[in-house]
Amino acid sequence: MQSIARKAALSQATAYRHFPSVEALVAAYHEDVITSLVEHGERSRKTGKELFEHQAARWVKLQNVHGPVIVRFSSQRGILARLQNAEEMAALTCGAWDQALRGVLIDLALPDALLNVARFLHNALFDPREILDLTKTAGLPDEQVVRRLSDAFYGALKGWASD
How many Cβ atoms are within 10 Å of 138's Cβ, its own excluded? Predict the structure, then answer.
């Protein structure tokens, strides 16, 4: 917290007055990132796959800026376990993606009963670590990352539904 306060040009006491721990600060930071994604989706008039890819493009751009912080403090549990335990960040994340995920299910003629599967597959494929790996390590342009991950997501959903 001392290093963060110094970089923010705040006293350590001021930093602690707003955030009791580094974890609380990072949680608020992550919440702001997800909230900006929610607002981005709400402003869009797109539906189905178009909305999903619109959100995915924004998510990839957000990871290029905020991903290293999000990754460092990511939960060790999966999205379904976090939802089951009613974790606030998991609910906020679903709020950012569920309309787009439901639209993809409709476009692929898949039942809404697969929403949790869609959440799981999306969470696995669009993990910030993997996005950073593709953009920073593999050097893929954002548009290519969105296209490849989206296509993989659609294929995984179809494959899951065919069982």
Answer: 10
Distance CA 26, CA 74 (A): 10
**Other CB atoms within 10 A of residue 34 CB:** 20
Give the pLDDT of residue 6: 64
Residue 147 corresponds to which amino acid? R
**Amino acid at residue number 77:** R
Nearest in space to 64 (alpha carbons), one of 160, 133, 150, 148: 133
Helices (H), 22-141: 22-43, 48-72, 79-84, 88-107, 115-125, 128-132
- Tokens 């999966």 appear where? 78
Region 125-147 average pLDDT:
96
b/e for 73-108, b at 16 or more Cβ within 10 A?
eeeeeebeebbeeeeeebebbbebbbbbbbbbbeeb
75/141 Cα distance (integer angstroms)? 27
